[in-house]
Structure formats: C-alpha cells, structure tokens
Design a protein that fits this description.
homodimer; alpha+beta; 6-stranded antiparallel β-sheet; 5-stranded mixed β-barrel; 36% strand
Chain lengths: 438, 438
C-alpha cells in the first residue's frame, strides 16, 4: 500500500500543548499497551505498519514539521515537504510526483490519501487497503471512503451515494450542512466525507500536468511558490464523474478539540496530577514538572505546558482559537530531528534553554551575530566543535561562545545541556549555518 | 505602641503560593494605591506605621521566616526568633523578654500581641492602640479584643463579656462551637476571640519567671529547646481573673483559605491571565511567566507558582491540606535576606537555579562537599570571591566552582545568575559556611 498522510495545521485549538511548531498530531497523549505515551502520528503510523508491514508511508507536510516527524517516527518515513502552503491540490500533486520520481512507485499503482490525525482502530486501515485495491483494480478514477454518520454533524461534508451497497457510485457531494439538513442527508443514506480517497498514481499525475506546467518532482518543488492555492476537492473531486464511495462503519473520530480529544483518553490524567474525590468528568494533561491539584471540578479540561495553562469547561474549549491568537509568545519548546529543547527562563538580555540531544545526533554547525552563549553540560558525554576545534565534554563542563564563533555539539550518549544566551537582541532568526568542512 | 506580631504557620492551605518556607503572610497579592502588590505582612506593617509612626514592631517567628521578613520589611523591624516551635506561651514570653532586654521597653509599658495576618482596615490598629492604652492605664492584667461576630462561625473561640459596654469584664471563654451553640453564644452577646490582647510588660515577664527558670532574654533563648509546648490561652488567659474585653466592630477577616483570600482581592487576576466572558466568580493568581487561559469556569480559584498548580472550586479549597501534605516536593522558590531564588530545572544529577541578588547584598561565603557549581551571570554587575580570590563579574561571565571550593557573590547592582549544580547528591544540607576573613 502506498499511503500519503496529510499533516497540516498549526493546532491552536489544542493550546497549550500545540503551538506554532508543534501541531496536535505530535502531542503524546495516547497510552500504549506498554504503558508509554504516543502521539496521533505515532499511533497512526504503527497501525498502518501492523496492517501492512510493507506499506510505503509518505507524509505530506510543511518544513516546520520535518524535525518532529523524524524525532517521532525515525528516518525511514518518506516526507514530501511543501516549501509553501498551497492548499491540498498542489500538496497531493507534489506528494504524487514524489512517490513516482523519488520512491519509484509505478503509474498503475494505487495511492491512498488520508489525514494524519484520525482516531481510529485497526479496521480503518484494513479499509484503506481495500480502498487502494479497488482503485488499482476497478474502473473508477477516484474511490472515496464514506464514513457512516453517527449523528447529524454540522462539521463535515457529506457524500450522497447512488446505492446503499458497500461500494457505490457517488451521486453528489454536499457542503457542511445545518443539523436539519444533515438529518435529511442521513435519511437519504449520506456518508461523512473524511477526506480519504484512493487513485491510480497516473490519474493524479496526469491531472497535475494538465493544470501545472512542470517536468518532474524537482521542477514542481522549485516552482511550488508560484502555484495557485486550490483544494483537491475543487480541482479534481467535484469535476470527476467516474467516482465511487466505499462505506466504512467502524470507529472514526476527529480529535480536533479538547472536548473530543479527552473523550479518547484512556485515563483522566497524563502527567503529574491529583484529582480529589469530588471531581467529575475532569481530564488533566500536564507536561510540566510540578503537580496540578484539582478539587471539586466538573466537566473541565486542565492542560499545562511550557507555553501556558488552560483551564476550560469542555464545551467551551471548542471556542479557544481567538483567545490563543491573542497570546503572542515565544515558542517555548520544540522537538527537533536531533532531540528537543525547552525555554526555561526569559529575562531582558538573556534566555536560558535546556537542550536534549539524542545519542549519535548533533546540532547544525552555526553561529550567532548578536548573542554570546554558554553551555553547561548537565548529563551525558559528547564533543563540542568551536571554531573548528573539537573537545570532549561531560557533566559539569562549560563551553563559552562569543557572538560570531561557530559551534556545534555532538552527543555520544544522550546529552543534556543548559544553554544561557546573552545579548540585547535574542532571536531564532539570528543564526548562520555552516558546513563543518568549511 | 509596642506591638508583637505572631507570625507562624507553614501555610499549606494556600498552596501552591505558600510552601514550607514561604507562609501565606508573605504572598504578594494585595494591590496598593500605587498599583504594586504587597503581602499581608507588608500591608499590616504599613497600616501600623500609619496609625503610629513611632510604633515599636517586633515579629515573633521561627528562623525560617527571618529572610522573608527582612526581604519584605527591610532591616529596621525587630524580630524575636523562636529557635524551636514551642507554642504561644514560650513565644510570647520570649518576645516580651526581647522587648525588655533588647529593645529597652520599660516594665510598665503596654505590649499588644496580635497575629500577623488579619485582613483589616486602619480602624483595627486604632483599636489596638486603645487596647494598649487601656492595659497601661487600667487595672486589668489582660485586655482582650473581642470581635463582633457577623455570623455564627464554627472556626473561632468565643468570649462572653459580662456586659454589652465597649469595655467589659470577661465572664467566660468558649471553645470553637457548632453553629447552633454559636447562635446561642451570639444571642448572649458573645464576641469572637481573634487572639489579640494587651498587657503591661511586667505582667507577662513575671508569669514567665513563675513558670520558667531563666535570667534574661539570652538565657531564655538558649534554653528554648527545653521548654514545654503550652499555649498562652492555657497558661495565662484562662487562669486570669482581672481580665477585660474591648469590643471591635470594624472589618476583620481571617484570610486562611483560598475562598476567604480571594474575597479580599480587588481584581479577578494577579499575574498573566485571560478569562473569557463566560467565567463567573473566578480568581486567578499566577506567579509563572506563562499565561493562564480560563474558559467557562464558575466559582473557581486557579493559582500557579513554581511549586505547582491549583484548580479548585472555592468551597472545596478549604479541604486542601491533606492533599498538599501528600505532595512531597523540593522547595522551588524562596525569598532570602539577600534576594531570592527559584529552581527552574531538576534532573538526575543536576539542578538549575535562578538567583537574584539585591544591589549591595551578598550570599554567605560557603562551599559544598558533594557538588560542583557553575554560575553564568545573566544581568547586572558584581564581584565573586572564589577560594579567597576576588574578581569582577558582569553579564555573560562564567564562574566554575569545584566541590570543596569556597565561594560567594556580591551584587554591586541587582545581579541575576543562572546556577547549575552538578552532583550525585544535591541537597540544601550540603553547605559549609565560612567567614570571609578565615
């Protein structure tokens, strides 16, 4: 199975656990049978692997997510990086060209596209496999998944099938309706459109060449900035007549808000939390190192990270976005391909960051124009390279770097470093990268 | 006026803003007309000074609070330090001996004793002054303040006066009653016992000599550990027949729980917080640097500090103590006579602390046996002394100290330092102090 997972969104609706660089799909909130926590993207990736250990998984995303993806899924996963945000048609065209030109997928092979963040069970991925097989073997140009509605939702588009068979031609599509209209649709056998579909690779590649003048993946990537924003639904789906829908009746949840996300949590608390016996329907997700004590609460979600603290009635939590938009903040934590960092103190003229490097990884070789830095190694062993000179480091060692000096750190074992930045203008943009060979 | 403020308590009921070393009276929560925030002890001290600018104020407390008191009130305030916890009779005896032997208060002068944390207006301190004058001039050995009850509380002891006059002899004392009994008391003209009373210095000094074998203040201090725990009420008040009560009808609040404390807050929020328009009767006190977003909450208090986060129904918040007792934690922040510190990161084998030294102040000269330390100066200027060698320091400078090396830092301007401690056993008890002259 060739599967493209669309991974987008800035995830403000799950603030403070999601931020501008960590989207909701990377929050580790689902307990595994082994007792560890995994994110939506890790859960989905594992589920695909279990259904088809040979599946070729490609994540279509922006460059801001590449570090997080490698951090959570390792280096083996394919990534089709959208250099700019250009809506779903350019993104799917680019991912399809990537599969063809970079991964060697043949033109008659099927590709399945689905969002990276559905909360589903194994049967969903079995259905995706069947969807791909239908696209490869059948006559339709597009095979959509239609999810059997469990209530007349206003949040989803609807697909009206011609029959109630497991696979049917599509009669028509309907935009997000009001509840009354949704009830009518459902009475006519309508299905939710979860944005999941399969096609033969050549079909989308041909469509892409029809609408965009490009030669191959590299050429498309290079001119990506010049492409028009257009959705796949508008450019392709709504114009296609040879289009089928396959019913899916298993569990499917869209965990876009705290209200829906907490419904999928197995336990009331993730992280350090105490709920007294008078709490009812309370969920706590605490990424801080200090405890949260909850007393006498009802129907609330409490969530704390280095970015801030949310205390919200569950129902109200779906209205969070405009409030978070007003919070103008430094990004306080991030996962990178080499490890992670967390801002632990901000003062006028200084910023202190705890950096964790995974064993065998290193930072880019870089310098800053407007700040000095001091590293104090707090655990692990590794090496630093400062202006070309390599030195071993271990817990207790200190490295000082003046503005302008080139530096990197290499972790031999997992390495934790307290980095103090000193300067009048501290900014993530003040960074010049170099090759170590220069 | 000679006034002894009893400052006790570990303040767990206002967790996370109070902790083992910061009692509730030091939380800066009351807005001044100048728009700054002051603590209960600062508020009370200022109120006393406004009623009587010549008042001799002595705070009777344990040594754990001495740094906080100097930090908040400066160096002028008298402090009678109880070297051990021995209940109120030894504490009041010690403070009385301190006034006599250390402050030169004459035996016929009156002393007023009151808790450090009542939430009151200026008229309360006018009443204290009157209480002292009555004790100095009248025949009674003890003059108590009786607070006119506003409801039949189960939280206070009651004083039954012989008459309804402003000043009356005391008929009897009653322990904390149930509501029904409290109603009966009030019908009989009973007053709340707020633990406020005045006496001629010689009266308590004589009582102390009767019950304890000591010569002077220093001798009493030295044998303090051997004294029995006994309350002033039991040892003195209940046995005294020449005892009067003076009515006080002004505002008097005991801000011992989040519920009562938030009632006294002028604003819904102290610190960074956003309440959406559906919040009702919500108070937020946030000492962290990140925002708290509250949505759809009712009758709640949210409080966050470096120690933890409380989210509680206001009514429920009075049952907090057993839950906080279970939270076994490193003290995460403290005010010291020389400034303050805050733990910002704890790892196995390391602890990182942000230290703020006030201009003109310095740490003790000290060493540690089991840990190395690294100071990175993040702002300000000063000097370090390491193994006898003095060096100037400014932002960006780094000082490394191996275990065993003696060190201190002196702030010429306000100085902020990131201190990384590295060692297998990091403990506040691993500290040897030295004189700089050694």
């Amino acid at each position: 199975m060739n599967i493209v997972l669309l991974s987008g969104g800035s995830g403000k609706r799950l603030w403070p656990l999601s931020n501008d660089i960590r989207s909701k799909q990377f929050i580790k909130i689902f307990k595994t049978p082994q007792g560890e926590y995994e994110s939506m993207v890790q859960r989905v990736y594992g589920q695909i692997r279990r259904v088809d250990s040979e599946a070729k998984v490609t994540i279509a995303t922006s460059k801001t997510q590449v570090s997080s993806i490698h951090n959570q899924l390792g280096e083996d996963v394919g990534i089709s990086v959208e250099p700019y945000r250009r809506d779903t048609f350019p993104a799917i065209a680019l991912a399809t060209a990537y599969l063809h030109d970079m991964q060697g997928v043949a033109e008659d092979e099927a590709v399945v596209v689905c969002p990276v963040d559905p909360y589903v069970e194994q049967d969903y991925f079995e259905a995706l496999k069947a969807l791909g097989e239908r696209a490869a073997e059948g006559d339709a140009n597009l095979v959509l998944m239609g999810i059997e509605p469990t209530y007349p939702s206003e949040k989803y588009g609807y697909i009206i099938p011609q029959s109630k068979d497991d696979i049917s031609n599509v009669e028509t599509f309907k935009e997000k309706p009001d509840v009354k209209t949704a009830e009518d649709y459902i009475a006519r056998g309508a299905l939710w459109n979860g944005g999941v579909f399969a096609y033969k690779l050549s079909y989308v590649l041909d469509k892409a060449h029809e609408l965009i003048d490009f030669t191959d993946y590299h050429d498309l990537f290079d001119k990506y900035e010049t492409l028009n924003k257009i959705s796949f639904d508008y450019a392709v789906v709504e114009k296609e007549s040879k289009i089928e829908v396959m019913r899916f009746g298993g569990q499917w949840k869209d965990l876009g808000t705290w209200n829906t996300l907490t419904e999928a949590m197995e336990e009331a608390c993730v992280g350090e939390a105490i709920l007294n016996e008078t709490c009812r329907n309370v969920h706590v997700i605490n990424e801080l190192d200090v405890p949260i004590l909850c007393m006498g609460l009802k129907d609330l979600v409490v969530s704390a990270s280095a970015e801030g603290i949310l205390v919200s009635d569950k129902e109200q939590s779906s209205y969070i976005k405009p409030y978070v938009d007003k919070i103008d903040q430094t990004v306080m934590f991030a996962e990178k391909s080499w490890g992670s960092f967390r801002v632990i103190d901000i003062e006028d003229g200084s910023m202190t960051i705890k950096v964790t490097l995974n064993a065998g990884h290193m930072m880019n070789y870089h310098s800053h124009k407007l700040r000095d830095e001091v590293w104090t190694i707090i655990s692990g062993t590794g090496r630093t390279i400062v202006d070309g000179m390599e030195q071993p480091v271990a817990a207790g060692d200190v490295v000082t770097m003046q503005a302008g000096c080139r530096h990197t750190i290499i972790a031999d074992t997992e390495l934790k470093v307290m980095e103090v930045q000193i300067g009048e203008e501290i900014s993530v943009h003040d960074k010049q990268k170099f090759n170590l060979e220069d």
